[in-house]
From TrEMBL, chains A, B:
Organism: Paenibacillus tritici
HTH tetR-type domain: residues covered: 6-66
Protein's name in the database: TetR/AcrR family transcriptional regulator
Residues of the signal peptide: none
Key word Lyase present: no
Annotated DNA-binding residue span(s): 29-48
PROSITE patterns: HTH_TETR_2 (PS50977)
Pfam families for this protein: TetR_C_8, TetR_N
Family matches, as InterPro entries: Homeodomain-like_sf, HTH-type_Tx_Regulator, HTH_TetR, TetR_C_Firmicutes
The entry's keywords: DNA-binding
Keyword DNA-binding carried by entry: yes
Length: 189, 189
DNA sequence: CTGATTGTGTGCAATACTGAACGGATTCTG
DNA sequence: CAGAATCCGTTCAGTATTGCACACAATCAG
């Protein structure tokens, strides 16, 4: 891709994320975004039809990154590991400014639901791949986990917890094991 | 000026100053500069004939800034004040990375001399404006001060002293008074 | 209400940037 | 030494960006 396109998009997205962290999405203007990105206003319209499109693409990009962060081990592992979970939480920690702003009360409407939906699809696929229901109603289990995980993420990115990303990852990993979402450790007889 | 030109120049200068701080000027390549600036190699040649021109323009810009920093009080003051001197040292402190790199042993050849020359011209003008020689050979006094000030600047920007920019400014101001380079304070009789 | 201000989305010609190519110089590397 | 690799400085056609213009909508202050 042309270097100019990359630079412009990065600048625009960066400015947008900054602004999201500073004020309500509705009162962000294209002028502000262009100014902050040090880019002509026309350039913004060249890449995005309006600020809703910009928001949408921004969210999509982050969700792709998030999903990607769940299996970074060269595709060799089909299931998350303690290691990959640490990596995911590390990613969330690094991008906390965006996720926190989007999740905030007056942040991006329905963002929490979209995040939850992404997590739900992830868990759903995971259960399908494992093949075993293990005595639980699948829909309930998956819903349960998606909601819980969304909450954990919110705690992390809004700095509402004193636990570090690594500590949180460790705790959540234990919960995943307890809920039989990952290959079980054999209890020593 | 076209926004693209501003952005490109800033990126190139920024990359160049970074590199100056990392390695010998001679072994810096145009490729590196372009890469670091996230700019096409051709763009560098669009603004600078070669790296020597880039260096030259970079030095010129900094010297203009430096001179500018000496009288920031809206041109109302003809002579430096304790306040303006603090401002100047603050400026040097903020741009220490460049000045230190340029002054370094294997930094920019003859940079120290050019800096000294700038300071010399400044002091010379200052003595002329004051109109009074006060019993000193002007050339000697000015030379003396320019050399001394260059040394002070080097101390500051290379972090060779534990004194802060403000402390240094205060001390140097006292020396300026002692050498009758500024309007004298009346000794209380 | 009215005029002023600010934002939106679109269109346009001018232009700065890009990437690729090239020949030639210099420097590694075996 | 020979060949590979890197850098230089230039050219060029294609493209993204710019700044300005416009008409229109929304918001706001008097």
């Amino acid at each position: 891709m042309d270097r100019r396109i990359r630079k412009s998009r990065e600048a625009i997205i960066g400015a947008f994320i900054q602004l999201i962290g500073e004020k309500n999405f509705e009162q962000i203007t294209i002028n502000e975004i262009a100014e902050r990105a040090n880019v002509s206003r026309g350039t913004v319209y060249l890449h995005y039809t309006d600020k809703y499109d910009l928001l949408d693409q921004c969210i999509r990009t982050h969700f792709v990154q998030l999903i990607d962060s769940c299996l970074p081990c060269g595709e060799q592992a089909l299931f998350p590991t303690a290691e990959s979970l640490r990596y995911t939480f590390r990613y969330l920690d690094d991008h906390a400014s965006f996720y926190a702003a989007a999740l905030a009360n007056q942040g991006v409407p329905a963002f929490r639901n979209r995040l939850q939906a992404v997590l739900l699809r992830g868990f759903d696929k995971q259960v399908d791949m494992s093949g075993i229901n293990r005595g639980m109603e699948k829909g309930i289990l998956v819903q349960f986990l998606a909601v819980a995980m969304t909450g954990m993420i919110e705690q992390l990115v809004t700095r509402a917890t004193t636990y570090s990303a690594a500590e949180l990852a460790e705790q959540v990993w234990a919960l995943m094991e307890r809920n039989q979402m990952v290959p079980q450790v054999q209890p020593t007889p």
